[in-house]
Specification:
The complex is a heterodimer of chains A (281) and B (294). With 281 residues, chain A is of the alpha/beta class. Chain A has eleven helices and ten strands. In chain A, helix 5 runs parallel beside helix 6 and helix 10 packs antiparallel against helix 11. Chain B is globular, with a radius of gyration of 19 Å. Classes of the chains: A alpha/beta (281), B mainly alpha (294). Chains A and B meet through helix 2 and helix 3 of A and helix 7 and helix 8 of B.
């Protein structure tokens, strides 16, 4: 197993109340797994990624990465094993640094010596790597990332997260902030890069169509637990309608409307269907 | 002579401006400890020179003291999670007492003592009138080049990223807190070194000489940016020093001719703060002029 999440619990204080984000959560990812994660708001999806990445400490439980117990590793140490892309394209790059400098920072992950960040040789290598995005960024290596569009920036971020061959790739709704065309493009690039680098991937998404179309395994989270875990053929045969039904089955009755609005963010046509279903429910 | 003195001062304080550029612009950390580390450098260098140390060694010791104090501010801001401005203020206040302890009295006279700048100038055989100017320019140039080279290393590049996106640095496997501590240490090393030079230049170290250092540093960085609109790191570093020279020149002129307008030397800090305020508020004013809401 590349990733093992063992009986992890995390609660947050919300005013006087305590909110349980993860409840004795168990999850294991085999090498090469591409798992999509869905669930309503507050189901604990992002907390799960944070606990794995180490930006948030679990109250109880254990995290194992590539066979090592990393529960007490700080985030920057785990980052040597993990690539991560956030929802906000601004979060994944340094805006006032050039495309080449950003890539070089990622290439030199964690190694921060007094050698030059960019040499002619490294620049050449990075040029080839960035050309694989087929966005023309190889001709804009010296441009500041601030001048790139949201889609270009997020594609660059995905590349920065994967080309160092991390053991695990975490994608946190990484296409949600993009317009539909760019979201599609970034998702295609993600799939291509994940396949090329044979990466084990955990992708949180709001879009049920995306969760179904991508990856070999799908999990649904609810109130801090995994309530559905489908793989292979079972996942392939699943449709959006089935998912809506499953949401209902696990007792997210109040989420009918929420579900509709969730889907709305992603896909207009799907939203129609979901709204209809929500009324029926 | 007015211009010459202003240029000399501008270059000596230019090293301080480079330090403020590093903390304020590169790390995006408004570091008030410089008001304490500037006289700290002066105090350490001053006491060493009075005890017969080589002035060059005394300068480096002044920078070293700034380095330690800057790292201290960094640790307060990261390990102890004290808000950055407060961390700087705490260091500054502590240094006020510490500087008095180091000097043993509020003021040290260094008149007639050997000077590092003049020794450097005489070794190079520079004409007497310009020896301070040229020696200070050489120091500024060398420091600027070192700073630029550093900012283009893996370490320096990561440091620049800390100021723009600390989360990214963490995601890329480096603890941004470590880089912040290191950056503040380097920044205050420059400020301490500048304070040591200033003490030798003016012939005294005084416990009150640091008041307003941060404002002068910010004014230099901002004036330089307004004049040069730097688009590269190279130009940004040059702009900080140019800004420092222009700032000292403006002050000299204000002191010389301000009296006619009713200003006195005691109004200096008010005027400087107004310059910085105006520059920092410029984007908001510009937006207001274009009819956007503030």
């Amino acid at each position: 197993m590349i990733l093992e999440v063992l009986k992890v619990t995390k609660t947050f204080a919300l005013g006087a109340e305590r909110v349980t984000a993860l409840q004795d959560l168990e999850l294991a990812l085999a090498e090469g797994d591409f798992v999509t994660v869905i669930g309503s708001n507050g189901a604990g999806k992002t907390t799960l990624l944070n606990v794995i990445a180490g930006t948030c400490r679990p109250d109880r439980g254990q995290i194992k990465l590539a066979g090592r117990d990393v529960t007490h590793w700080p985030a920057h140490r785990r980052a040597h094993l993990i690539g991560r892309v956030f929802q906000d394209p601004l979060q994944g790059t340094a805006a006032q640094m050039t495309v080449a400098e950003n890539l070089a920072l990622a290439a030199k992950k964690g190694r921060r010596g007094l050698a030059p960040l960019l040499t002619a040789r490294r620049r050449k290598a990075l040029e080839e790597i960035v050309a694989s995005l087929e966005m023309g960024l190889e001709r804009r290596l010296s441009e500041k990332v601030a001048h790139l569009s949201g889609g270009e920036r997020q594609a660059l971020t995905v590349l920065m997260a994967v080309f160092t061959h991390p053991k695990l790739l975490l994608l946190d709704e990484h296409t949600a902030a993009l317009d539909p065309a760019n979201a599609e493009k970034v998702l295609t690039i993600t799939e291509k890069l994940v396949a090329e680098h044979c990466l084990t991937t955990l992708m949180v998404t709001h879009r049920m169509d995306q969760a179904l179309a991508v990856g070999n395994r799908l999990i649904m989270m609810h109130k801090g637990r995994v309530v559905l875990d489908l793989e292979g053929r079972e996942k392939q045969q699943l449709r959006v309608e089935d998912l809506v039904g499953l949401f209902r089955k696990v007792g997210i009755a109040d989420d009918g409307l929420l579900l509709a609005s969730d889907v709305d963010k992603g896909n207009g046509m799907m939203a129609e269907k979901a709204k209809k279903l929500a009324h029926l429910l | 002579m007015l211009f010459l003195h202003a240029a000399e001062q501008g270059l000596i304080y230019g090293l301080m401006a480079l330090g403020v550029y590093l903390s304020f612009r590169v790390l995006a950390f408004p570091d008030l400890s410089v008001d304490g580390t500037f006289p700290l450098g002066a105090a350490v260098a001053g006491i060493l020179i009075l005890r017969g140390a080589n002035p060059a060694v005394a300068m480096l010791a002044g920078g070293g003291a700034g380095l330690v104090a800057g790292a201290f501010t960094g640790v307060l801001a990261t390990r102890l999670r004290i808000p950055g401005l407060l961390a700087g203020v705490l260091t500054m206040i502590m240094l006020y007492s510490l500087n008095l302890r180091i000097m043993g009295r509020p003021n040290l006279s260094l008149l007639g003592k050997p000077s590092a700048l003049l020794t450097l100038a005489r070794t190079l055989g520079i004409p007497r009138t310009y020896e301070t100017l040229v020696a200070a320019a050489i120091l500024c140039l060398a420091t600027g080049i070192l700073l630029l080279l550093f900012l283009h290393t893996e370490l320096g590049g990561a440091m620049r990223a800390v100021g723009q996106n600390p989360q990214l640095v963490r995601t890329l496997g480096t603890n941004p807190d470590h880089l912040l501590v290191l950056g503040l240490a380097l920044s205050n090393a420059l400020v301490g070194f500048s304070g040591a030079l200033a003490a030798q230049y003016s012939g005294f170290a005084d416990v009150g000489m640091g008041v307003g250092t941060i404002i002068a540093g910010l004014a230099s960085v901002i004036v330089g940016e307004i004049l040069m609109r730097p688009r590269s790191l190279l130009l940004a570093v040059v702009a900080a020093v140019v800004g420092s020279v222009v700032y000292r020149l403006a002050i000299s002129i204000a002191l010389r001719y301000g009296a006619a307008l009713g200003f006195t030397a005691s109004d200096l800090r008010l005027l400087t703060a107004l310059v910085v305020l105006g520059a920092l508020a410029a984007p908001a004013f510009r937006a207001a002029l274009k009819g956007e809401n503030l």
